[in-house]
Amino acid sequence: MKRNGRVLDLLKLLTLIETESPKSVLQLVEKTDSSRSVLMRLLRLARDELNVQYAFVRSQGYIITNWGVLNRELVLKSFASTFDPKQSAKPVRKGGK
Predict the structure, then answer these.
(1) DSSP 34
(2) Please, which residues have CB within 8 angstroms of residue 70's CB and are 6 or more apart in sequence?
(3) Which of 33, 74, 76, 97 has the fewest Cβ atoms nearer than 10 Å?
(4) 3 within 8 A of 45, measured Cβ to Cβ
(5) Those residues with Cβ within 8 angstroms of residue 56's Cβ, 6 or more apart along the chain or in another chain
(6) How many whole angstroms separate alpha carbon 76 and alpha carbon 97?
(7) Peptide bond before residue 91 is cis, with ω within 30 degrees of 0
(8) 4 sits in which H/E element
(9) pLDDT tens column, 21-73
């Protein structure tokens, strides 16, 4: 995957974690149509490169505790519309693949 695509996937994943509840790994896999390993890789990227801090809370799933260098409001504003609320929050694809 190209780095640009990976960054977009990461921002979409963070938006999904912040706006959906609960968020277990299995639910995130289903909603993003990605594998568990891809999701874990993206979360490590967020932690290591962007200083995003997250935790897994048994009753809530994944939560973001600190957005690191990212501006939470701008990310949510930019990516919340990439999910169709009437469906299971899978990314809405426009044309092509």
Answers:
(1) -
(2) 11, 14, 50, 52
(3) 97
(4) no
(5) 62, 63
(6) 24
(7) no
(8) helix 3-19
(9) 768 889 999 888 889 999 999 999 999 999 999 999 988 899 999 999 999 99
| Residue corresponding to tokens 């009753």 | 59
SS3 88: coil
Q: Please report where in the chains the tokens 């990212």 appear, as a residue.
A: 70
Q: What amino acid occupies position 70?
A: L
Tokens of 23: 């968020």
Q: Is residue 76 a contact partner of residue 18, using CB atoms and an 8 Å limit? A: yes
Which two three-digit tokens encode residue 21?
């509840």
pTM: 0.78
